[in-house]
Amino acid sequence: MDIYLPIANLSVNALVIIGLGGLVGLLSGMFGVGGGFLTTPLLIFYGIPPTVAAASSATQVMGASVSSVVGHVGRKTIDFQMGGVMVVGGVIGAGIGAVIFRVLERIGQIDTVIGILYVVMLGSIGMLMARESIHALIMARRGERLEARKRRHHPLVSALPLRWRFYASGLYISPFAPLLLGIFSGIITMLMGIGGGFVLVPAMIYILGMSTQLVIGTSLFQILFVTMVTTMVHATTTHAVDLVLAFLLLIGSVIGAQIGGRISMKARPEYLRVALAFIVLIVAIRMALGLGWRPDEIYTVTLQ
Known about the structure:
Layout: E1 2-5, E2 10-13, H1 14-31, H2 36-46, H3 50-75, H4 80-106, H5 110-142, H6 155-158, E3 164-166, E4 171-173, H7 176-192, H8 197-206, H9 212-238, H10 243-266, H11 269-292
Antiparallel strand pairs: 1-2, 3-4
Helix pairs in contact: 1-2, 1-10, 2-3, 3-7, 3-9, 3-10, 4-7, 4-9, 5-11, 7-8, 7-9, 8-9
């Protein structure tokens, strides 16, 4: 079942794209993370141009985030004040990212930069996740409990001026800390087509000192609005958003997320964290090979 993607300018098998979206949704439902950081690499592996893959993934993440945010609003697990500051930072970051994107596109290096960013970020985060999850698994097998981490913001946050009270999170910190995190999230969302949750969630816990009960909902709240802005910026400046591709991905991810959610209720969390860490590392290694592997034929001429 082939379908033509007007922006990517190629024909793809619609069932394969839906399957890729389903795989990402399955992982998202199983591990409780956004699937954007896997969607773009999988699309690139399939042959979608990196610029279109990144822009369309952001659109898919935006659509998939709506239902999650609605659920967190009902459970009152969102710090709207903190999320609002991060949204402002995300919008600023998306503007900066758009400028960087256009400059790199103009000099012909955007595809290479997207690949390098994925290798660096997925590789480093995957190794950290693997180390912590394997340690937790070993402790669990020994019957020992990990010591609960005291909730405290990073010392660098204390050095920032102008403190605000974030009542929902119980924090008294400078708004510049979440603002800077939002800016960073906006830049990587624009360049990589990810929601940024796999970066924001640990940063909000270990840097801002937020409680885990509020982190996921607040992160998704920020991701929803930043990916919305990112999609609009891509659509009006880079013209790289392929709505047909994003729609097919969204169909698969919605179905996959439901299945993944049921699996996560039966599987042990220690094994899920280890599995996610190694999946991230495998994707990073595959991206690295794609950057350094020289093809047998550099140029290929195809007759239509």
